[in-house]
Protein backbone atom coordinates (compact mmCIF):
# COMPACT_ATOMS: atom_id res chain seq x y z
CA UNK A 1 0.00 0.00 0.00
CA UNK A 2 1.46 3.34 -1.06
CA UNK A 3 1.02 6.15 1.44
CA UNK A 4 1.79 9.69 0.47
CA UNK A 5 3.92 12.03 2.64
CA UNK A 6 0.77 13.19 4.45
CA UNK A 7 -0.03 9.61 5.37
CA UNK A 8 -2.93 9.35 2.92
CA UNK A 9 -3.34 6.32 0.62
CA UNK A 10 -2.36 7.11 -2.95
CA UNK A 11 -5.09 6.14 -5.42
CA UNK A 12 -4.18 4.25 -8.61
CA UNK A 13 -6.96 5.89 -10.60
CA UNK A 14 -9.32 8.79 -10.01
CA UNK A 15 -12.24 10.06 -12.08
CA UNK A 16 -12.96 13.73 -11.31
CA UNK A 17 -15.30 16.54 -12.38
CA UNK A 18 -18.05 14.16 -13.47
CA UNK A 19 -21.62 13.28 -12.77
CA UNK A 20 -21.37 9.86 -11.17
CA UNK A 21 -24.67 8.04 -10.71
CA UNK A 22 -23.71 5.90 -7.74
CA UNK A 23 -26.89 3.79 -7.45
CA UNK A 24 -26.42 3.77 -3.70
CA UNK A 25 -29.46 3.60 -1.41
CA UNK A 26 -30.14 7.34 -1.77
CA UNK A 27 -29.51 7.44 -5.54
CA UNK A 28 -26.70 9.92 -4.83
CA UNK A 29 -24.82 11.74 -7.54
CA UNK A 30 -21.17 12.55 -6.83
CA UNK A 31 -18.42 14.33 -8.77
CA UNK A 32 -15.49 12.02 -8.28
CA UNK A 33 -14.35 8.50 -7.42
CA UNK A 34 -10.99 7.03 -6.41
CA UNK A 35 -9.74 3.48 -7.06
CA UNK A 36 -6.94 1.55 -5.37
CA UNK A 37 -6.01 -1.84 -6.83
CA UNK A 38 -9.33 -3.24 -8.01
CA UNK A 39 -11.61 -1.52 -5.47
CA UNK A 40 -13.34 1.79 -5.08
CA UNK A 41 -11.85 3.56 -2.05
CA UNK A 42 -13.60 6.93 -2.02
CA UNK A 43 -16.38 8.93 -3.65
CA UNK A 44 -17.43 12.54 -3.23
CA UNK A 45 -16.57 16.04 -4.42
CA UNK A 46 -13.53 16.43 -6.71
CA UNK A 47 -11.80 18.44 -3.97
CA UNK A 48 -12.00 15.47 -1.58
CA UNK A 49 -10.92 12.82 -4.11
CA UNK A 50 -8.04 15.00 -5.36
CA UNK A 51 -6.43 14.58 -1.93
CA UNK A 52 -5.78 10.93 -2.90
CA UNK A 53 -3.91 11.87 -6.07
CA UNK A 54 -0.20 11.17 -5.92
CA UNK A 55 2.60 10.89 -8.44
CA UNK A 56 1.54 7.45 -9.57
CA UNK A 57 -2.17 8.21 -9.89
CA UNK A 58 -3.89 8.14 -13.27
CA UNK A 59 -6.33 11.04 -13.39
CA UNK A 60 -9.32 11.03 -15.74
CA UNK A 61 -11.00 14.44 -15.97
CA UNK A 62 -14.56 13.58 -16.94
CA UNK A 63 -15.39 17.15 -17.97
CA UNK A 64 -18.94 16.74 -16.70
CA UNK A 65 -19.52 13.33 -18.30
CA UNK A 66 -21.86 10.80 -16.68
CA UNK A 67 -20.61 7.59 -15.05
CA UNK A 68 -22.61 4.48 -14.12
CA UNK A 69 -21.62 1.39 -12.14
CA UNK A 70 -20.51 -1.40 -14.49
CA UNK A 71 -23.56 -2.80 -16.27
CA UNK A 72 -24.80 -6.27 -15.38
CA UNK A 73 -26.66 -8.22 -18.03
CA UNK A 74 -28.21 -11.09 -16.11
CA UNK A 75 -28.95 -13.57 -18.87
CA UNK A 76 -26.81 -13.90 -21.99
CA UNK A 77 -25.33 -16.73 -24.04
CA UNK A 78 -21.72 -15.66 -24.57
CA UNK A 79 -20.52 -19.14 -25.51
CA UNK A 80 -23.45 -19.64 -27.88
CA UNK A 81 -22.92 -16.20 -29.41
CA UNK A 82 -19.23 -17.04 -29.83
CA UNK A 83 -19.98 -19.95 -32.15
CA UNK A 84 -22.81 -18.25 -34.01
CA UNK A 85 -20.01 -16.16 -35.51
CA UNK A 86 -19.02 -19.24 -37.55
CA UNK A 87 -22.50 -19.70 -39.04
CA UNK A 88 -24.58 -18.08 -41.79
CA UNK A 89 -26.12 -14.99 -40.21
CA UNK A 90 -29.83 -14.83 -41.11
CA UNK A 91 -30.57 -11.89 -38.77
CA UNK A 92 -33.39 -9.53 -39.87
CA UNK A 93 -32.72 -6.71 -40.36
CA UNK A 94 -30.74 -6.63 -42.61
CA UNK A 95 -31.95 -9.95 -44.13
CA UNK A 96 -35.36 -9.35 -45.71
CA UNK A 97 -36.48 -12.53 -47.44
CA UNK A 98 -36.32 -16.30 -47.74
CA UNK A 99 -34.62 -15.92 -51.13
CA UNK A 100 -31.73 -13.99 -49.51
CA UNK A 101 -31.24 -16.81 -47.00
CA UNK A 102 -31.39 -19.43 -49.76
CA UNK A 103 -28.71 -17.52 -51.71
CA UNK A 104 -26.41 -17.58 -48.69
CA UNK A 105 -27.04 -21.31 -48.20
CA UNK A 106 -26.31 -22.01 -51.89
CA UNK A 107 -23.10 -19.96 -51.71
CA UNK A 108 -21.99 -21.94 -48.65
CA UNK A 109 -22.84 -25.25 -50.36
CA UNK A 110 -20.67 -24.24 -53.31
CA UNK A 111 -17.72 -23.75 -50.90
CA UNK A 112 -18.11 -27.02 -49.00
CA UNK A 113 -17.59 -30.64 -49.93
CA UNK A 114 -20.79 -32.68 -50.28
CA UNK A 115 -21.95 -34.09 -46.95
CA UNK A 116 -20.48 -31.28 -44.81
CA UNK A 117 -22.94 -29.55 -42.51
CA UNK A 118 -24.19 -26.07 -43.30
CA UNK A 119 -25.25 -24.14 -40.20
CA UNK A 120 -27.24 -20.95 -40.10
CA UNK A 121 -28.41 -18.86 -37.16
CA UNK A 122 -30.44 -15.81 -36.05
CA UNK A 123 -33.29 -16.73 -38.37
CA UNK A 124 -36.70 -15.13 -37.67
CA UNK A 125 -39.62 -15.99 -39.97
CA UNK A 126 -41.81 -13.23 -38.52
CA UNK A 127 -39.40 -10.55 -39.67
CA UNK A 128 -39.16 -11.82 -43.27
CA UNK A 129 -41.33 -10.21 -45.94
CA UNK A 130 -42.49 -13.73 -46.92
CA UNK A 131 -44.15 -14.07 -43.48
CA UNK A 132 -43.72 -17.82 -43.47
CA UNK A 133 -41.07 -20.44 -42.75
CA UNK A 134 -38.49 -21.73 -45.20
CA UNK A 135 -39.31 -25.32 -46.23
CA UNK A 136 -37.03 -28.33 -46.44
CA UNK A 137 -37.68 -28.45 -50.19
CA UNK A 138 -36.44 -24.90 -50.73
CA UNK A 139 -33.31 -25.73 -48.73
CA UNK A 140 -32.89 -28.91 -50.83
CA UNK A 141 -32.68 -26.80 -53.98
CA UNK A 142 -30.10 -24.50 -52.43
CA UNK A 143 -27.99 -27.33 -50.96
CA UNK A 144 -28.87 -30.73 -52.46
CA UNK A 145 -25.66 -32.44 -51.30
CA UNK A 146 -25.25 -30.99 -47.81
CA UNK A 147 -27.31 -31.31 -44.65
CA UNK A 148 -28.57 -27.87 -43.56
CA UNK A 149 -29.49 -26.81 -40.01
CA UNK A 150 -30.71 -23.28 -39.38
CA UNK A 151 -31.74 -22.11 -35.92
CA UNK A 152 -34.09 -19.33 -35.04
CA UNK A 153 -32.51 -16.42 -33.17
CA UNK A 154 -34.10 -17.72 -29.96
CA UNK A 155 -32.66 -21.18 -30.51
CA UNK A 156 -36.02 -22.89 -29.87
CA UNK A 157 -36.98 -23.59 -33.45
CA UNK A 158 -35.03 -24.99 -36.38
CA UNK A 159 -35.41 -25.49 -40.12
CA UNK A 160 -33.56 -28.31 -41.82
CA UNK A 161 -33.42 -29.85 -45.31
CA UNK A 162 -34.22 -33.37 -46.46
CA UNK A 163 -30.59 -34.52 -46.19
CA UNK A 164 -30.59 -33.55 -42.50
CA UNK A 165 -33.94 -35.26 -41.89
CA UNK A 166 -32.64 -38.42 -43.57
CA UNK A 167 -29.47 -38.47 -41.45
CA UNK A 168 -31.59 -38.08 -38.32
CA UNK A 169 -33.97 -40.79 -39.53
CA UNK A 170 -36.96 -38.45 -39.25
CA UNK A 171 -39.84 -39.66 -41.39
CA UNK A 172 -43.60 -39.39 -41.53
CA UNK A 173 -43.74 -42.15 -38.91
CA UNK A 174 -41.37 -40.59 -36.38
CA UNK A 175 -43.27 -39.65 -33.21
CA UNK A 176 -42.70 -36.24 -31.61
CA UNK A 177 -39.95 -36.56 -28.98
CA UNK A 178 -40.74 -35.54 -25.36
CA UNK A 179 -40.53 -31.73 -25.14
CA UNK A 180 -40.53 -31.23 -28.89
CA UNK A 181 -42.64 -31.23 -32.02
CA UNK A 182 -41.99 -32.15 -35.66
CA UNK A 183 -44.03 -29.89 -37.91
CA UNK A 184 -45.89 -31.80 -40.64
CA UNK A 185 -47.92 -30.89 -43.72
CA UNK A 186 -51.54 -32.02 -44.28
CA UNK A 187 -50.39 -35.46 -45.40
CA UNK A 188 -48.18 -35.89 -42.34
CA UNK A 189 -44.86 -35.30 -44.15
CA UNK A 190 -42.29 -33.40 -42.03
CA UNK A 191 -41.86 -29.87 -43.41
CA UNK A 192 -38.34 -29.41 -42.08
CA UNK A 193 -39.53 -27.24 -39.19
CA UNK A 194 -38.58 -28.63 -35.79
CA UNK A 195 -39.69 -27.25 -32.44
CA UNK A 196 -37.59 -27.41 -29.27
CA UNK A 197 -36.14 -30.89 -28.46
CA UNK A 198 -37.07 -32.15 -31.95
CA UNK A 199 -34.17 -29.97 -33.13
CA UNK A 200 -31.78 -32.07 -31.03
CA UNK A 201 -32.58 -35.14 -33.15
CA UNK A 202 -30.61 -33.33 -35.86
CA UNK A 203 -28.20 -31.09 -33.91
CA UNK A 204 -26.83 -34.07 -31.97
CA UNK A 205 -25.42 -35.34 -35.29
CA UNK A 206 -23.40 -32.16 -35.95
CA UNK A 207 -19.81 -32.20 -34.66
CA UNK A 208 -19.62 -29.83 -31.65
CA UNK A 209 -17.40 -26.76 -31.69
CA UNK A 210 -14.00 -27.18 -30.06
CA UNK A 211 -12.87 -25.35 -26.92
CA UNK A 212 -10.46 -23.31 -29.10
CA UNK A 213 -13.26 -22.33 -31.47
CA UNK A 214 -15.45 -21.23 -28.55
CA UNK A 215 -12.57 -19.28 -26.97
CA UNK A 216 -11.71 -17.48 -30.21
CA UNK A 217 -15.33 -16.45 -30.70
CA UNK A 218 -15.55 -15.38 -27.06
CA UNK A 219 -12.78 -12.82 -27.57
CA UNK A 220 -15.05 -11.04 -30.04
CA UNK A 221 -18.08 -11.36 -27.74
CA UNK A 222 -16.10 -9.87 -24.84
CA UNK A 223 -15.00 -6.95 -27.04
CA UNK A 224 -18.64 -6.36 -27.92
CA UNK A 225 -19.69 -6.52 -24.25
CA UNK A 226 -16.97 -4.06 -23.24
CA UNK A 227 -18.14 -1.69 -25.97
CA UNK A 228 -21.65 -1.93 -24.51
CA UNK A 229 -20.42 -1.33 -20.95
CA UNK A 230 -21.22 -4.85 -19.69
CA UNK A 231 -18.77 -5.69 -16.90
CA UNK A 232 -20.61 -8.73 -15.50
CA UNK A 233 -22.79 -11.22 -17.28
CA UNK A 234 -24.64 -14.39 -16.34
CA UNK A 235 -24.12 -17.17 -18.90
CA UNK A 236 -27.45 -18.96 -19.24
CA UNK A 237 -26.11 -22.11 -20.92
CA UNK A 238 -22.76 -22.94 -19.38
CA UNK A 239 -21.44 -26.38 -20.31
CA UNK A 240 -18.14 -28.22 -20.03
CA UNK A 241 -16.39 -26.93 -23.15
CA UNK A 242 -17.64 -23.39 -22.58
CA UNK A 243 -16.32 -23.42 -19.01
CA UNK A 244 -12.99 -24.66 -20.39
CA UNK A 245 -13.01 -21.80 -22.91
CA UNK A 246 -13.66 -19.22 -20.14
CA UNK A 247 -10.75 -20.64 -18.17
CA UNK A 248 -8.54 -20.65 -21.26
CA UNK A 249 -9.09 -16.93 -21.83
CA UNK A 250 -8.58 -16.08 -18.15
CA UNK A 251 -5.38 -18.15 -18.22
CA UNK A 252 -4.24 -16.01 -21.14
CA UNK A 253 -4.87 -12.87 -19.10
CA UNK A 254 -8.13 -11.82 -20.76
CA UNK A 255 -9.81 -10.21 -17.73
CA UNK A 256 -12.63 -8.36 -19.38
CA UNK A 257 -16.12 -9.58 -18.42
CA UNK A 258 -16.92 -11.21 -15.08
CA UNK A 259 -19.00 -14.32 -15.71
CA UNK A 260 -21.49 -16.11 -13.50
CA UNK A 261 -22.43 -19.56 -14.71
CA UNK A 262 -25.87 -21.06 -14.99
CA UNK A 263 -24.80 -24.64 -15.55
CA UNK A 264 -27.06 -26.36 -18.11
CA UNK A 265 -28.83 -29.29 -16.49
CA UNK A 266 -29.45 -31.04 -19.79
CA UNK A 267 -26.62 -32.03 -22.08
CA UNK A 268 -26.88 -33.79 -25.45
CA UNK A 269 -24.10 -36.21 -24.37
CA UNK A 270 -26.33 -37.44 -21.54
CA UNK A 271 -23.98 -36.24 -18.79
CA UNK A 272 -25.46 -35.08 -15.49
CA UNK A 273 -23.99 -31.73 -14.38
CA UNK A 274 -26.12 -31.58 -11.20
CA UNK A 275 -24.74 -34.91 -10.07
CA UNK A 276 -21.21 -33.75 -10.96
CA UNK A 277 -21.60 -30.62 -8.86
CA UNK A 278 -23.15 -32.38 -5.88
CA UNK A 279 -20.50 -35.11 -6.02
CA UNK A 280 -17.78 -32.47 -5.74
CA UNK A 281 -19.65 -30.37 -3.18
CA UNK A 282 -19.85 -27.41 -5.52
CA UNK A 283 -22.49 -24.94 -4.38
CA UNK A 284 -23.70 -21.62 -5.73
CA UNK A 285 -20.97 -19.03 -5.28
CA UNK A 286 -18.07 -21.42 -5.95
CA UNK A 287 -15.37 -19.63 -7.95
CA UNK A 288 -13.91 -16.16 -7.86
CA UNK A 289 -14.77 -12.64 -9.00
CA UNK A 290 -14.11 -13.56 -12.66
CA UNK A 291 -15.76 -16.96 -13.01
CA UNK A 292 -18.30 -18.28 -10.56
CA UNK A 293 -20.91 -21.03 -10.41
CA UNK A 294 -24.28 -19.37 -9.85
CA UNK A 295 -27.02 -21.87 -10.52
CA UNK A 296 -28.35 -24.91 -12.32
CA UNK A 297 -30.10 -23.88 -15.53
CA UNK A 298 -33.28 -25.83 -16.20
CA UNK A 299 -35.17 -25.44 -19.44
CA UNK A 300 -38.86 -25.00 -18.68
CA UNK A 301 -41.30 -24.11 -21.41
CA UNK A 302 -40.68 -23.05 -25.00
CA UNK A 303 -40.22 -19.75 -26.72
CA UNK A 304 -42.39 -16.63 -26.96
CA UNK A 305 -41.42 -15.51 -30.42
CA UNK A 306 -41.21 -19.10 -31.70
CA UNK A 307 -44.76 -19.80 -30.50
CA UNK A 308 -43.96 -22.72 -28.18
CA UNK A 309 -44.21 -21.05 -24.75
CA UNK A 310 -46.50 -22.84 -22.26
CA UNK A 311 -49.68 -20.80 -21.90
CA UNK A 312 -53.20 -21.17 -20.43
CA UNK A 313 -55.02 -20.03 -23.57
CA UNK A 314 -53.83 -20.76 -27.14
CA UNK A 315 -51.38 -18.50 -28.91
CA UNK A 316 -52.27 -16.82 -32.18
CA UNK A 317 -49.20 -18.04 -34.05
CA UNK A 318 -46.63 -20.80 -33.76
CA UNK A 319 -47.93 -24.06 -32.27
CA UNK A 320 -51.43 -22.58 -31.82
CA UNK A 321 -52.12 -24.77 -28.83
CA UNK A 322 -51.02 -24.45 -25.21
CA UNK A 323 -47.35 -24.67 -26.13
CA UNK A 324 -45.06 -27.14 -24.47
CA UNK A 325 -42.75 -27.86 -21.57
CA UNK A 326 -39.33 -28.81 -22.99
CA UNK A 327 -38.62 -30.48 -19.65
CA UNK A 328 -41.50 -32.26 -17.95
CA UNK A 329 -42.87 -30.68 -14.73
CA UNK A 330 -41.83 -33.85 -12.84
CA UNK A 331 -38.23 -33.54 -14.07
CA UNK A 332 -38.15 -29.81 -13.29
CA UNK A 333 -39.30 -30.63 -9.78
CA UNK A 334 -36.71 -33.40 -9.37
CA UNK A 335 -33.87 -31.16 -10.55
CA UNK A 336 -35.03 -28.22 -8.45
CA UNK A 337 -35.29 -30.29 -5.27
CA UNK A 338 -31.89 -31.90 -5.98
CA UNK A 339 -30.20 -28.56 -6.50
CA UNK A 340 -31.97 -26.73 -3.67
CA UNK A 341 -31.13 -29.34 -1.05
CA UNK A 342 -27.47 -29.27 -2.20
CA UNK A 343 -27.24 -25.48 -1.81
CA UNK A 344 -27.39 -24.83 -5.54
CA UNK A 345 -29.71 -22.15 -6.88
CA UNK A 346 -31.89 -22.92 -9.89
CA UNK A 347 -32.54 -20.75 -12.93
CA UNK A 348 -35.69 -21.98 -14.64
CA UNK A 349 -36.49 -20.78 -18.15
CA UNK A 350 -40.13 -19.63 -18.11
CA UNK A 351 -41.80 -17.50 -20.78
CA UNK A 352 -45.53 -18.26 -20.80
CA UNK A 353 -47.88 -17.85 -17.82
CA UNK A 354 -48.32 -21.62 -17.53
CA UNK A 355 -44.55 -22.09 -17.75
CA UNK A 356 -43.98 -19.59 -14.92
CA UNK A 357 -46.41 -21.52 -12.70
CA UNK A 358 -44.67 -24.84 -13.36
CA UNK A 359 -41.35 -23.29 -12.30
CA UNK A 360 -42.88 -21.75 -9.18
CA UNK A 361 -44.53 -25.07 -8.27
CA UNK A 362 -41.11 -26.75 -8.30
CA UNK A 363 -39.48 -24.04 -6.18
CA UNK A 364 -42.41 -24.10 -3.75
CA UNK A 365 -42.11 -27.87 -3.41
CA UNK A 366 -38.35 -27.68 -2.77
CA UNK A 367 -38.80 -24.96 -0.17
CA UNK A 368 -41.56 -26.90 1.57
CA UNK A 369 -39.31 -29.99 1.84
CA UNK A 370 -36.33 -28.02 3.12
CA UNK A 371 -36.92 -24.35 3.89
CA UNK A 372 -33.77 -22.32 3.13
CA UNK A 373 -33.96 -18.56 3.46
CA UNK A 374 -32.56 -16.18 0.86
CA UNK A 375 -31.91 -18.83 -1.83
CA UNK A 376 -33.02 -16.38 -4.53
CA UNK A 377 -33.94 -19.09 -7.00
CA UNK A 378 -34.38 -17.50 -10.38
CA UNK A 379 -36.99 -17.43 -13.08
CA UNK A 380 -35.33 -16.67 -16.42
CA UNK A 381 -37.19 -14.34 -18.83
CA UNK A 382 -40.29 -14.19 -16.66
CA UNK A 383 -42.09 -12.89 -19.70
CA UNK A 384 -45.85 -13.23 -19.20
CA UNK A 385 -46.32 -12.87 -15.47
CA UNK A 386 -49.73 -12.01 -14.04
CA UNK A 387 -50.40 -10.45 -10.61
CA UNK A 388 -51.26 -13.90 -9.21
CA UNK A 389 -47.87 -15.22 -10.26
CA UNK A 390 -46.12 -12.10 -9.01
CA UNK A 391 -47.64 -12.76 -5.57
CA UNK A 392 -46.10 -16.23 -5.63
CA UNK A 393 -42.71 -14.85 -6.74
CA UNK A 394 -42.80 -12.39 -3.88
CA UNK A 395 -43.84 -15.03 -1.32
CA UNK A 396 -41.12 -17.47 -2.44
CA UNK A 397 -38.35 -14.84 -2.55
CA UNK A 398 -37.73 -15.66 -6.20
CA UNK A 399 -35.39 -13.38 -8.18
CA UNK A 400 -36.60 -12.87 -11.76
CA UNK A 401 -34.18 -12.15 -14.57
CA UNK A 402 -36.58 -10.27 -16.80
CA UNK A 403 -36.08 -10.24 -20.58
CA UNK A 404 -37.39 -6.68 -20.78
CA UNK A 405 -34.61 -6.24 -23.33
CA UNK A 406 -36.55 -8.42 -25.80
CA UNK A 407 -38.98 -5.56 -26.30
CA UNK A 408 -37.03 -3.64 -28.92
CA UNK A 409 -36.02 -6.59 -31.12
CA UNK A 410 -38.82 -9.11 -30.76
CA UNK A 411 -41.56 -7.29 -28.84
CA UNK A 412 -43.64 -7.22 -32.03
CA UNK A 413 -43.41 -11.03 -32.25
CA UNK A 414 -44.73 -11.28 -28.69
CA UNK A 415 -47.71 -9.06 -29.45
CA UNK A 416 -48.45 -11.09 -32.57
CA UNK A 417 -48.12 -14.48 -30.85
CA UNK A 418 -49.70 -13.67 -27.49
CA UNK A 419 -52.21 -11.00 -28.46
CA UNK A 420 -52.72 -7.56 -26.91
CA UNK A 421 -54.56 -8.73 -23.78
CA UNK A 422 -51.87 -11.11 -22.61
CA UNK A 423 -49.00 -8.68 -23.25
CA UNK A 424 -50.50 -6.41 -20.60
CA UNK A 425 -48.44 -8.56 -18.21
CA UNK A 426 -45.33 -8.84 -20.37
CA UNK A 427 -42.27 -8.02 -18.23
CA UNK A 428 -44.29 -6.09 -15.65
CA UNK A 429 -41.51 -3.96 -14.15
CA UNK A 430 -43.67 -1.26 -12.58
CA UNK A 431 -45.82 -3.79 -10.76
CA UNK A 432 -42.75 -5.76 -9.65
CA UNK A 433 -41.18 -2.57 -8.33
CA UNK A 434 -44.34 -1.62 -6.45
CA UNK A 435 -44.44 -5.10 -4.91
CA UNK A 436 -40.78 -4.97 -3.87
CA UNK A 437 -39.70 -7.76 -6.24
CA UNK A 438 -36.07 -7.19 -7.23
CA UNK A 439 -35.64 -8.11 -10.91
CA UNK A 440 -32.56 -7.98 -13.09
CA UNK A 441 -32.73 -7.33 -16.82
CA UNK A 442 -31.48 -9.00 -19.98
CA UNK A 443 -32.02 -9.38 -23.72
CA UNK A 444 -30.90 -13.00 -23.88
CA UNK A 445 -27.98 -12.04 -26.15
CA UNK A 446 -27.54 -13.16 -28.94
CA UNK A 447 -31.30 -13.78 -29.23
CA UNK A 448 -31.36 -10.02 -29.77
CA UNK A 449 -28.15 -8.16 -30.44
CA UNK A 450 -27.86 -4.82 -28.71
CA UNK A 451 -26.52 -3.65 -25.38
CA UNK A 452 -28.00 -2.53 -22.06
CA UNK A 453 -28.65 1.08 -23.15
CA UNK A 454 -31.35 -0.12 -25.54
CA UNK A 455 -32.71 -2.34 -22.78
CA UNK A 456 -32.81 0.47 -20.23
CA UNK A 457 -34.67 2.50 -22.88
CA UNK A 458 -37.15 -0.40 -23.18
CA UNK A 459 -37.79 -0.53 -19.43
CA UNK A 460 -38.60 3.19 -19.58
CA UNK A 461 -40.33 3.62 -22.95
CA UNK A 462 -41.54 0.08 -23.84
CA UNK A 463 -41.54 0.66 -27.59
CA UNK A 464 -40.59 -1.96 -30.18
CA UNK A 465 -38.27 -1.48 -33.16
CA UNK A 466 -41.31 -0.62 -35.31
CA UNK A 467 -42.66 1.92 -32.80
CA UNK A 468 -45.39 -0.23 -31.20
CA UNK A 469 -45.95 0.52 -27.50
CA UNK A 470 -46.29 -2.59 -25.32
CA UNK A 471 -48.08 -2.19 -22.00
CA UNK A 472 -46.73 1.30 -21.29
CA UNK A 473 -48.45 1.17 -17.88
CA UNK A 474 -45.53 -1.06 -16.82
CA UNK A 475 -42.83 1.51 -17.66
CA UNK A 476 -40.44 2.59 -14.90
CA UNK A 477 -38.35 5.71 -14.33
CA UNK A 478 -34.86 6.11 -15.78
CA UNK A 479 -33.15 5.83 -12.39
CA UNK A 480 -35.12 2.66 -11.65
CA UNK A 481 -34.20 1.20 -15.04
CA UNK A 482 -30.52 1.95 -14.39
CA UNK A 483 -30.93 0.13 -11.08
CA UNK A 484 -32.31 -2.95 -12.91
CA UNK A 485 -29.05 -3.19 -14.90
CA UNK A 486 -26.72 -2.45 -11.97
CA UNK A 487 -27.68 -3.01 -8.32
CA UNK A 488 -30.56 -5.39 -9.06
CA UNK A 489 -28.26 -7.40 -11.35
CA UNK A 490 -25.76 -7.68 -8.53
CA UNK A 491 -28.56 -8.72 -6.15
CA UNK A 492 -29.86 -11.50 -8.34
CA UNK A 493 -26.26 -12.69 -8.76
CA UNK A 494 -26.03 -12.58 -4.92
CA UNK A 495 -23.16 -10.14 -5.27
CA UNK A 496 -24.64 -6.88 -4.03
CA UNK A 497 -21.89 -6.66 -1.40
CA UNK A 498 -19.20 -6.29 -4.11
CA UNK A 499 -21.00 -4.92 -7.18
CA UNK A 500 -23.89 -2.87 -8.48
CA UNK A 501 -23.03 0.60 -7.15
CA UNK A 502 -20.16 3.07 -7.03
CA UNK A 503 -19.37 2.94 -3.32
CA UNK A 504 -16.20 2.46 -1.28
CA UNK A 505 -15.32 -1.21 -0.88
CA UNK A 506 -16.91 -2.36 -4.13
CA UNK A 507 -15.11 -3.70 -7.17
CA UNK A 508 -13.98 -0.88 -9.45
CA UNK A 509 -16.29 -1.61 -12.41
CA UNK A 510 -17.64 1.55 -14.07
CA UNK A 511 -18.69 2.98 -17.43
CA UNK A 512 -18.44 6.53 -18.78
CA UNK A 513 -21.26 7.61 -21.11
CA UNK A 514 -21.26 10.13 -23.96
CA UNK A 515 -24.55 11.69 -22.86
CA UNK A 516 -26.24 12.22 -19.53
CA UNK A 517 -28.77 9.41 -19.25
CA UNK A 518 -30.78 11.25 -16.58
CA UNK A 519 -31.39 14.36 -18.67
CA UNK A 520 -31.46 13.36 -22.37
CA UNK A 521 -34.92 13.00 -23.95
CA UNK A 522 -36.04 9.42 -23.21
CA UNK A 523 -36.14 8.59 -26.92
CA UNK A 524 -32.35 9.15 -27.06
CA UNK A 525 -31.42 6.77 -24.25
CA UNK A 526 -31.13 3.86 -26.70
CA UNK A 527 -28.50 5.77 -28.71
CA UNK A 528 -26.22 6.56 -25.76
CA UNK A 529 -22.70 5.28 -26.36
CA UNK A 530 -20.22 4.05 -23.83
CA UNK A 531 -16.97 6.05 -24.00
CA UNK A 532 -14.93 4.09 -21.46
CA UNK A 533 -15.41 0.77 -19.67
CA UNK A 534 -13.43 0.11 -16.50
CA UNK A 535 -13.28 -3.38 -14.98
CA UNK A 536 -11.31 -4.25 -11.86
CA UNK A 537 -9.81 -0.75 -11.89
CA UNK A 538 -8.46 -1.14 -15.45
CA UNK A 539 -9.70 0.42 -18.69
CA UNK A 540 -10.82 -2.43 -20.96
CA UNK A 541 -12.53 -0.30 -23.60
CA UNK A 542 -12.09 3.22 -24.83
CA UNK A 543 -14.03 4.73 -27.69
ZN1 LIG B 1 -31.43 -17.69 -22.82
Protein described:
By secondary structure, the protein is an alpha/beta fold. A hairpin with a 2-residue loop joins strand 4 and strand 5 (39-44). Helix 2 packs across helix 7 (211-228) and helix 15 crosses helix 16 (478-484). The longest helix has 18 residues, at 211-228. The two termini are 31 Å apart. Bound molecules: zinc ion. Residues 75, 77, 236, 444 line the site of zinc ion (ZN). Zinc ion is lined by residues 75, 77, 236, 444.
Low-confidence stretches: none
Strand order of the largest sheet: 8-15-16-17-18-19-20-21
Structural class: alpha/beta
Number of helices: 17
Strand runs, count:
24
Which term fits the overall shape?
globular
As a whole number of angstroms, the C-alpha radius of gyration is 24 Å
Helicity range of the residues? 25-40%
Largest sheet: 8 strands, parallel
Q: If you average the pLDDT, what whole number results?
A: 95
Report, as a whole number of angstroms, the end-to-end distance: 31 Å
The amount of beta strand, in percent, is 15-25%
- Tell me which ligands are bound: zinc ion
Would you kindly provide a brief summary of this structure?
The protein contains 17 helices and 24 strands. With 543 residues, it is an alpha/beta fold.
Could you outline the blueprint of secondary structure elements for this entry?
Blueprint: E1 13-16, E2 19-21, E3 29-30, E4 32-36, E5 39-44, H1 46-49, E6 58-61, E7 66-69, E8 71-76, H2 78-84, E9 88-89, H3 98-111, E10 118-123, H4 136-142, E11 148-152, E12 157-160, H5 162-168, E13 180-184, E14 190-196, H6 198-203, H7 211-228, E15 230-238, H8 240-251, E16 258-264, H9 273-280, E17 291-298, H10 329-341, E18 345-350, H11 353-369, E19 378-381, H12 387-396, E20 399-402, H13 406-418, H14 429-435, E21 440-441, H15 452-461, H16 478-484, H17 487-492, E22 510-513, E23 530-535, E24 538-542
Parallel strand pairs: 1-6, 2-7, 8-15, 9-10, 10-11, 15-16, 16-17, 17-18, 18-19, 19-20, 20-21
Antiparallel strand pairs: 1-4, 2-3, 4-5, 7-22, 11-12, 12-14, 13-14, 22-23, 23-24
The structure holds zinc ion (ZN).
Amino acid sequence: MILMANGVIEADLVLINGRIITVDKEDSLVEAVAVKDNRIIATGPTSKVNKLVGEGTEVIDLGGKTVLPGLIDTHTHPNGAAVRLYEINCRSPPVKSISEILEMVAAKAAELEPGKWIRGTNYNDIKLEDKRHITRWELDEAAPENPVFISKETGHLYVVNSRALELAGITKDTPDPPGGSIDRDVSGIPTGLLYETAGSLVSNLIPPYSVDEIAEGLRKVWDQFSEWGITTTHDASAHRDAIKAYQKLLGEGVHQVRTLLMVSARRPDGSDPLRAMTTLGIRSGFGDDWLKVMSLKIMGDGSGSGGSAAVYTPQHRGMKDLGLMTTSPEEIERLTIGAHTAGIRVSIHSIGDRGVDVALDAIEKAQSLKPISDMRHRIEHNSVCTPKQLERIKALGVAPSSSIGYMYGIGDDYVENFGPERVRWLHPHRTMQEMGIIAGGNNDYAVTDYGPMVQIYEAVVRKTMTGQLVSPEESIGVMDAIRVYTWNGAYIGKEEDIKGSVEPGKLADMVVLDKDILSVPQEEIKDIQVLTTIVDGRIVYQR
